[in-house]
């Protein structure tokens, strides 16, 4: 049963702007403040989520939301864009400096929009693309029949080694030689290790394919120097700006200068209309934050926390995929505890610990996927991670009275580390 939390009487100082909403529209204020309270009252362990800073939220809630700005800085279809042009130039400059890229497009509305634009720039309908299969952790945009990608391109899926759960590069090379794809995609929603981008580059080169890195998940770790970067190896890097990167919900694309014009035209006007200038300003704020030594410390702590949590889950009896993690995310099969992923997610949610289910490579049923980005932003460290692992074991191993007890402890823990 999911946890719902009533709106708090007091609004945190960092979110003072919500006072206006409470006075003007109590109905929506109840939802927004209730959600704010839920986020602060539970453990947010969804691997793709985080808490943005008050400065990011301020840019998102600013009058830049009023501005129409089709086109690019200095070449807009609307008047009055001088100041939002400045915001976009700052975002681009900060992104290229942060990731060491020649060119950045900061307009994609989401990670999926970024991938759509990358395909639009490099491929023709019907082309063959080699990407991680959805059953192994590929994203919907990596060839799902329910997504534009699976409808418009011919995807050849690769998986992971059945024993180790790791990418099998020999197998990927064999598939590339057999199918001669126009593009190879690396990146996943649930692979807890780093892809070897140099090896992917060699595979793509051998068959004359583009290499597209979909780094939506690790982009914040890359920014903080806690994960290897695909930028020197991939033709195009797609990413989200939320997740570990801790920016607003949105996407971006990095590429070499030889592809800059194709990427820009694929975003606007081919797949998108007006840029969302409030979000672009918020992306700039997040890139600025991510360039600090403090953020680098955060990114390394995210990984250290995930390792402690993975070890703790193994000690509690979970079968942790690949035996651990190098990133912010962990996938695990709770079957040894006598429950499947869906049941586990429900019981953990009732105890105030919120996470996702995920496909299990070669497993029966579904596993759980969780990450440490949000709890690390709250300031939690290894001691809290070790305790959370024990609380997982207790919540899944016992009856409803104990769930109630775990819920109380989770609430106390979360309240000791307020996100705002
Ligand atoms: C690898 C990967 N690609 C693309 C996306 C899509 O991002 P969005 O949900 O912003 O469209 C995600 C989101 O989780 C992802 O993990």
Structural class: alpha/beta
What spatial order of strands do you see in the largest sheet? 4-10-9-8-7-5-6
β-strand percent reads 5-15%
Task: Tell me the span between the first and last alpha carbons.
Answer: 26 Å
**CATH-level-2 architecture of the largest domain:** 3-Layer(aba) Sandwich
EC number: 2.1.2.1
Enzyme class: transferase
Site (Plays an important role in substrate specificity): 242
Family: Belongs to the SHMT family.
Which descriptors would you attach to this protein?
Aspartate Aminotransferase, domain 1; 420 residues; alpha/beta; 4-stranded antiparallel β-sheet; 2 domains; binds pyridoxal-5'-phosphate; Aspartate Aminotransferase, domain 2; 7-stranded mixed β-sheet
Q: What does this protein structure show overall?
A:
By secondary structure, this protein is of the alpha/beta class. The chain has two domains: about 60-290, Type I PLP-dependent aspartate aminotransferase-like (Major domain) (Aspartate Aminotransferase, domain 2); about 295-415, Aspartate Aminotransferase, domain 1, CATH 3.90.1150.10. It has 16 helices and 15 strands. The protein has helices at about 20-25, 25-40, 55-60, 80-100, 110-120, 150, 170-180, 195-205, 220-225, 255-270, 275-290, 295-315, 340-350, 375, 380-395, 400-415, and strands at about 45, 70, 75, 105, 130, 155-160, 185, 210-215, 235-240, 250-255, 320, 330-335, 355, 355-360, 365-370. The strands form four sheets. The chain has a seven-stranded mixed sheet, with helices on both faces. Strands 11-12-15-14 form a four-stranded antiparallel sheet, covered by helices on one side. β5, α6 (about 150) and β6 (about 155-160) form a beta-alpha-beta unit. α1 (about 20-25) packs across α2, α12 (about 295-315) runs parallel beside α15 and α15 (about 380-395) runs antiparallel to α16 (about 400-415). The mean pLDDT is about 95. Bound molecules: pyridoxal-5'-phosphate (PLP). The site of pyridoxal-5'-phosphate has 15 residues, from α5.
């Amino acid at each position: 049963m999911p946890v719902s939390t009533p709106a708090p009487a007091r609004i945190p100082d960092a979110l003072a702007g919500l006072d206006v909403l409470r006075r003007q529209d109590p109905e929506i204020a109840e939802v927004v403040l209730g959600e704010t309270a839920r986020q602060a009252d539970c453990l947010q362990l969804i691997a793709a989520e985080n808490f943005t800073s008050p400065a990011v939220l301020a840019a998102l809630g600013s009058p830049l939301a009023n501005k129409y700005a089709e086109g690019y800085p200095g070449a807009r279809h609307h008047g009055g864009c001088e100041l939002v042009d400045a915001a976009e130039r700052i975002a681009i400059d900060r992104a290229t400096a942060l990731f060491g890229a020649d060119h950045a497009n900061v307009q994609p509305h989401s990670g999926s929009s970024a991938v759509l634009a990358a395909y639009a720039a490099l491929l023709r309908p019907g082309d063959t693309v080699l990407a991680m299969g959805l059953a192994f952790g590929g994203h919907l945009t990596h060839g799902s029949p329910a997504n534009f990608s699976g409808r418009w391109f011919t995807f050849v899926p690769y998986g992971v080694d059945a024993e180790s759960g790791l990418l099998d590069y020999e197998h990927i090379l064999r598939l590339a030689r057999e199918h001669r794809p126009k593009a190879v995609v690396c990146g996943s929603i649930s692979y807890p290790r780093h892809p070897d981008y140099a090896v992917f580059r060699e595979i793509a080169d051998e068959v004359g394919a583009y290499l597209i890195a979909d780094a939506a998940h690790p982009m914040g770790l890359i920014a903080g120097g806690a994960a290897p970067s695909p930028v020197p190896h991939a033709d195009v890097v797609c990413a989200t700006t939320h997740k570990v990167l801790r920016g607003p919900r949105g996407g971006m694309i990095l590429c070499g200068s030889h592809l800059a014009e194709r990427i820009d035209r694929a975003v606007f006007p081919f797949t998108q209309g007006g840029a969302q200038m409030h979000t672009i300003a918020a992306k700039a704020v997040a890139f600025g934050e991510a360039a600090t030594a403090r953020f680098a410390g955060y990114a390394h702590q995210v990984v250290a926390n995930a390792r402690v949590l993975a070890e703790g889950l193994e000690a509690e009896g979970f079968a942790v995929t690949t035996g651990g993690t190098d990133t912010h995310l962990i996938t695990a099969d709770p079957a040894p505890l006598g429950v499947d992923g869906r049941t586990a997610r429900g019981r953990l949610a009732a105890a105030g610990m919120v996470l996702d289910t995920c496909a299990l490579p070669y497993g029966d049923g579904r596993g759980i996927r969780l990450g440490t980005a949000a709890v690390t932003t709250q300031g939690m460290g290894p001691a809290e991670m070790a305790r959370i692992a024990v609380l997982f074991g207790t919540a899944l191993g016992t009856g409803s009275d104990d769930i109630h007890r775990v819920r109380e402890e989770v609430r106390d823990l979360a309240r000791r580390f307020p996100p705002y």
